[in-house]
Amino acid sequence: MNTCIGEIQKMIQSADELGSPLQAKLEKLGKQLGMASILVSLVVFAAGAIRGVRPDPTNDQSVYLQYLLIAVSLTVAAVPEGLPACVTITLAVGMQKMSHKKALIKNLYKVETLGSASVVCTDKTGTLTAGVQTAVRMWFNKTLYQFDKVGFDPEGSCTPSQGGQALTSADPAAFTGLVAILACNKNVQLSLETITSDKGVMRQEWQCTGNMSERPLIVAGRKLGMAFVVFSRLSVSLSLAPYWL
Q: Which of 16, 60, 123, 198 is catalytic?
């Protein structure tokens, strides 16, 4: 706990948990109703005490005590006892509707909080994103090279930004050798697999396993026409040009 990470943990543990916007609004409404009920009760008590007329002439209690009971009764009656139940039922219905859309919410009041959000800033790979990185552009020797398509599909191409034909592994270019070296220096397996969806539909899809930052490299090499054979942790390119070997 004496490290920097430990200090961050202490700050997280000591941080105050903020309530939801709905809780803040209900708390404000409760204070307003409380102040209004107390004010009305004081006015009723003062007006009755000044007049000196008993609300119930058959009661032998003093005028002040009778008006005090009326004031307390008004204060208690002003409290909306059914408000918490109505709020809970409304939030429960909202949580049920969101669960039908596969959105699970742990805290009941977070339903209204999520509905009040206008901007969501997050970075959660695998949950909100596909977790698929793609080499789109590479800058080498004052030239920008553009890769088409995204994802793990190797059926793509690479073209220089200044135009020209798409590059292949046989082109005597230093950039081609660089991509081959990057693609060989990795611990990644790229294969075409059969995927079955939730509805039972089968389709062919390229899957890549291994280091997340190394996956785009082997896909970039395949787009240049390089084929790789994996022996344990060693990857060898089968179509490297003799020019730069």
A: 123
